[in-house]
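Bug: token stream looks shifted between consecutive jobs. Job 1:
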Amino acid sequence: MSQIDLLRRVPIFASLPDQELESLADSLRRRTFAKGMIIFHKDSPGRSLYFIASGKVRIFILSESGQEISVRIYGCGDVFGELSMLDGLPRSAGAVAMEKTEVLTLERDDFLALLERFPRIAPDIIATLSKRIRYTTRYAEGLAFLDVFGRVADRLLELADCYGLDRDEGREIDLRLTQTELATLVATSRESVNKVLGTFCDEGLIKLDGQRIVILDRRGLQRRIVY
């Protein structure tokens, strides 16, 4: 995917003319992160906006006691790191590459200059931020009011919607998540996730093959999500 094609997929830049997209593409810098590499830490200076050209990135927060909670996973075509672009404050969360990941970065000064030249993209930025706030609110609601079975079911369905591939047997989640990584997505222990996944397998809701997860019964998983 070319840099311009990638920019066209980003909602906040969708209304820009081709000439401006070409100029914006010239300002981008390409970086590659190996699997497990930290892209940035929470509270680090926020100087760049990131566009994912390939790979996947996990956004996480870390408590003082060392417990890690994953907030979201982003894939090809997604953008992250936008909050610091607007307020200039340090990062509100960390980001780590889940696999070999290539990103394009846009420096904050270039982003602000673009916003000054094209103020019409402001509503698109607001819409993007509003969408992410709604997601975070729903995520917090799930952590607060769902039991561990409901949280795992909810997150599996979300991942299947975002990264699912239709197979003869069901919908495969096109991510190779360890049980530890899945545990950070639902704020519980790896042992609890292992128990829940085993139960879902016994009930015929999912199929496990190593780190491969296939959704067999979507409605059955949905029934596990009880607020």
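Job 2, same session, no restart:
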Amino acid sequence: NLTNGTRLLPGARELLSRLAASGVALALVTNKPEAMSRRILAHFGLETYVPVVVGGDTCKTRKPDPEMLHHAMMLLKAEPGETVMVGDSAADIDAAHAAGVRSIVLSGGYGHGRAEDLGADVLVTGLEEAGEAIAAWQGAGTEHASLSPS
């Protein structure tokens, strides 16, 4: 039942396609197990857009510890100043802060509490807005994004 109840957020495929086409290197950083996360990406045909997957069992620690983001950045050969974390939970935003990367929080996701209280650099209500924020930062030198469902 891994993919039976799983649905993509509106605009997810389009955003990943657009980011990948514009040269943004993408990673999925999730506390879910890596193998299961790869199967979900493959089910939706997204694995070509997101070649790097760091799961909850990839590293010794999980978000909100920054180790998973550091690992993704190492695999992407990215620096914190050129990396953006898109997430929907306190663990995502706390990991971004600890790793020294920019953060975008998506309201209405899996996270508990109010998204506007998490301290992200940008609050968005949909993935189209996240894409706009990444594009603005990309013009300022950001070339890597980590997309992280909780």
